[in-house]
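name: query_chain
kind: protein
chains: 1
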Amino acid sequence: MITKRQLGYGFSAVGLALALGPFLLDLFRTTNYTGIGPTQLLALQVGIPLFVLGLTLIPLGRRPA
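structure:
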């Protein structure tokens, strides 16, 4: 059975990857565009709240989800 702590770690990991992933891809791209695009804004708007939600679940410990 999954606990709230495990669920919190999962949400935090997915949220962090979603928020930082598009920006890390810019390191490997070879375009001259230097702004933040709509996909990156959407990833931030979804990733940051998911990361924060995960952080709030971690202290709840071993209770079943």
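note: The chain is about 65% helix and 0% strand.
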